[in-house]
Each structure stands twice: as structure tokens, then as C-alpha cells.
Amino acid sequence: MKPPSNRICLIEDDELMGESLSDRFGLEGFEHDWYRTGAEALAALRSLSYALVVSDIRLPDITGDVLFEQLLTEGQRLPPFIFITGHGEIDSAVNLLKKGARDYITKPFDLDALIDKMGDIISPVMETGMSGLGQSPAMRQIQTMLKRLASSTASVLITGESGVGKERVARALHDLTGQNKPFIAVNCGSLTESLLEAELFGYEKGAFTGAARTKKGVFEQADGGTLFLDEIGDTPPAMQVRLLRALQERSIVRVGGETLIPVNIRLVCATHQILQERVVSGVFREDLYYRINVVELRIPPLRERPEDILPLAHTLLAEIAATSDKSPPGFTAAAKHAIKAYPWPGNIRELKNSLERASLMCDGPLISHDILFERPAPVLFSQQDLAGSLRDYLGECERDFIVRALVACQWQIQLCADSLGISRKNLWEKMRRFGIDKENTIHLV
Ligand SMILES: Nc1ncnc2c1ncn2[C@@H]1O[C@H](COP(=O)(O)OP(=O)(O)OP(=O)(O)O)[C@@H](O)[C@H]1O
User: Fold this and answer.
1) Which of 62, 198, 209, 212 could link 66 by a cystine bridge, Cβ 3.0 to 4.6 Å?
2) SUPFAM superfamilies given for it (predicted)?
């Protein structure tokens, strides 16, 4: 499978048009490759991975339609396509939309409009910043700290609610420091005391019933790399003593063993608890607390960094799509609105689960509010969301009305267009804009 990419594939034979598009993409920070012929582009799309293709329909060798259909027949996993069409080519553009292209724009067009369409599809993915952690000031600060920490071996404590991405941050730190070294994670809260001891420090053959062979613990497995101790706040008291000794002496003794084995690890711990409170109540050792907490990184919950939600959602959708043959869907306006307004109490884990489910349910190019939240869009908006909400709301009403009309007309487009009093082309355009197709929307009525 081709690795996910953030690059754009531009297919344009006209030198002037290609140059202005290429210059503008550069200014917008979109990395891109520019191909002048369909054949060149075909070869590139077969071997390289792109986040988006912007293609002229009319090319010197093959047309954009042929190129798209050729890739479809080859069973390639296609990135979203935006086609640039002339006035006479709208029918082929609409045909391409039916076959799965994301959008089209008609010449002469306003570059800003194209950039907006592109931004809806890819810029959110790019904006998640270094390591894809987020673009909010809090996450940018964390990324700066990670870069600083990369050159030290100080122990790091990552705190934050469940599902905020603490392990992800630990891995990002590890990736900055020891890419070819081990990253070993263990959850200290999910094991009994004796299992945790064996997991952390390993055991010698015969140390206890069932110890049929010598086994290295995670301290030894992580030697030279990162040891990530999740839910450190739940470590039983006896294990806290052993942990402290291992960290102070930089060596461990396997269960049932006598030899001191030196270990060289970067320790990263995480907890969703307030460790100071556990220290005060005597559940967590103060000396261990200071040992593991040389630097604390607090990851805010998603509701405190709403600007990260949509970019993360797009990143997650791209990750989910990469495991299947689909290209990542986008969101309807109402879904975007709601995704930013919802507080996500389960944080990124909840967002990821919802998107996994929505991706399964959604057959069209856009995930609607109904699919994402398994309920119709709310009519009421919070005060901060009022700007633009009337348009979004009217859009949702229009979409619902069209779906009902389509169902009533048994999806006969001409009949439905006549009953709605609009042209067939206008109906197709509205269906494309609202992401309506038969398979995807019939159950919502
Ligand atoms: N920046 C990110 N981009 C994409 N996915 C992410 C990101 N951060 C977290 N995730 C995903 O969200 C889920 C929860 O993340 P993670 O396990 O790192 O959270 P956590 O804070 O360690 O949770 P817990 O406290 O429950 O252990 C995981 O599936 C992870 O892959």
C-alpha cells in the first residue's frame, strides 16, 4: 500500500495556467508535482501517493475522463480529484462526479474558489502540524517542548484526560530521538502486582510456577530506547519502591535473579489522574513523583482546543481510509459545524471511534451530521456558532427535502427535477453539493 502523503498532483498542459496554479499552490504551502500530459500523470499516480489531484479535463494526449476511468479500472485507490472544466464539458464533469470524482470547477474560475475547495479536502490534514499532534497554541507549545526534550534524556510525565493522545505524544517524542530504537509501552493499571513485577523486570527460569524460561522485562526490552509507563498513578505501592530503585540505580534485577542488569532508557510516564493529589493522600510516593516528573506535559482535552478537532478528524479519516480501498470522505457543512461544537468527552479516542463508524456507514463523498451523530442535526446553535448557521440550517433543510423528493420519485432524476421545479443539471449539482446518493441516503429518510 502506498504511504499516505500530503502532496498534490497537478495535471495541466497549459503553461500559463499551470504556472499560476503552481505558484499559488506554493504560496499556500501546498507541496505539489506538476504534470503536463495524461501519460506522465498516469505513471505518477500509479506509483506515488497524493492527497489530492487537480486535473484539467482537456489534455494533449488523453482526456481527464479517460485518465480517471483508466485508474479506476486498474483498481487503484484514488485520492480525491478536482477537475478543471471548460463550459462545454460540464456533462463530462457531472459524469465524473457520479463515478467518484470529488468536485469540479469551471473555467474561467477564481483561484480563491479553487483554493477553498482544495482546503476543504486537504488543508486540515496538513494543519495538524509536526507529528500531526495539532495546531492549537497548546499543542504547538507541546511540539516545541518535544523538540527541546529530544536532545535530553529527562524523564517526562504526560498528563491529561483519557483519550487525549498521551501515548501518541510519547511516540512523537520517541520518533524525534530514537527512530530505530525500541519504544515499549506497558499499562501499569491493568496488571496485578506480581504480573506487573514480571512484566517490568522480567524473570529467571524457575522463579515461580509457570516460569518455564528466562524472560526479559520491559526495562531490558526498551534498553537504548523509550519505556512508556501508562497509568503510572495506579502502580501498586510495592512496585513503586522497585521502580524508584531501578530508576535511581539505572539497573534492574529480574524476579528470581541476583545479577544487577544495567539499563539505559528514556522514561516517559502518563496518567489521567492528578498525581499531586495521590501524593498528598499517600497513595503515590513523593520521591517517585519527583523522579518521573522532571518535565510535565499537560495535554488539554479536545474541548479546550476546538481548532484541533476538524484537522484531527481529517487526519483520522485519512488514516481510516488508508486501511481500505476508499478515498477519505469529507464532511457536510452541518457535520463540520457540529463536530466543532460537540465537547468530545472521550477526546480523540471518541472522535476516532465515531469516525470509524461513520466511515463504514457513509458511501458517498461526504459524512453528514446524521451519520456522524446518529441523530438529525440540531436546530439550536450556541451563541458562538450563530454566524453562518442560518445558511447551514437552510442547506440541511434543502438537502432533506431533495432526499425526500428523490425517494418519492424512486430516484428518477428527471421526474424528481420536474417535481421540484428545477432542471436536471441543477438537481445533479445539488445532489453533488450535499453528497446525496441513493445508497448513502436512503436510510436517513
Ligand atoms: N494526533 C493524533 N492523530 C491521530 N490519532 C490520534 C492522535 N492522538 C491520539 N490519536 C488516537 O486516539 C486514540 C487515543 O490516543 P492515546 O491512546 O494516545 O490516548 P491516551 O491519552 O494515551 O489515552 P488513555 O489515557 O486512555 O491511555 C488512539 O487510537 C490514537 O491512535
Assistant:
1) 62
2) CheY-like, Homeodomain-like, P-loop containing nucleoside triphosphate hydrolases
Question: For the chain, how far is it from start to end, CA to CA, in angstroms?
Answer: 37
Q: How far apart are CA 246 and CA 261, in angstroms?
A: 10
Q: Are residues 92 and 203 in the same domain?
A: no
| Entry pTM | 0.65
| Assigned domain for 168 exists | yes
Q: Is residue 131 part of a domain?
A: no
Structural domain boundaries enclosing 400: 304-444
Q: Which helix (H) or strand (E) holds 35?
A: strand 32-35
Nearest CA to ligand 1 atom 15: 165
Do residue 293 and residue 313 come from a single domain? no
pLDDT per residue as tens digits for the range 17-71? 898 898 888 877 778 999 999 999 999 999 888 889 999 999 999 999 999 999 9
| Predicted confidence (pLDDT) per residue in 96-153, tens digit | 888 888 888 888 777 888 887 887 777 544 445 555 788 888 998 999 899 889 888 8
Task: Give the tens place of pLDDT for each residue, 322-358.
Answer: 887 777 788 887 888 889 889 999 999 999 999 999 9
- Closest C-alpha among 197, 165, 171, 168 to residue 266: 171
Distance between CA atoms of residues 192 and 197, nearest Å? 9
Best mutation site among 125, 133, 349 for ligand 1 pocket (most ligand atoms within 8 Å of CB): 349
Which atom of ligand 1 is nearest the CA belonging to 131? Answer: 1
Query: Is residue 323 domain-shared with residue 178, that is, in the same domain?
Result: no
Domain with residue 143: its CATH number is: 3.40.50.300
Longest Cα–Cα distance in the chain: 87
Tell whether ligand 1 has an atom less than 6 A from the beta carbon of residue 163.
yes
Q: Which atom of ligand 1 is nearest to the CA of 352?
A: 12
User: Is the pLDDT assigned to residue 1 strictly greater than 80?
Assistant: no
133 Cβ below 6 A of ligand 1: yes
- pLDDT at residue 125, rounded to an integer: 45
Output the pLDDT for position 444.
41
Residues 251 and 147 in one domain: yes
Round the average pLDDT of the chain to a whole number and report it: 86
Number of structural domains the chain divides into:
3
Q: Give yes or no: residues 309 and 290 share one domain.
A: no
Residue 1 within a domain: no
Q: Is the CB of 312 under 6 A from ligand 1?
A: yes
> What letter does residue 33 receive in the DSSP assignment?
E
Residue 360 lies in a domain: yes
CB-facing half-sphere around the CA of 265: CA atoms within 13 A? 32
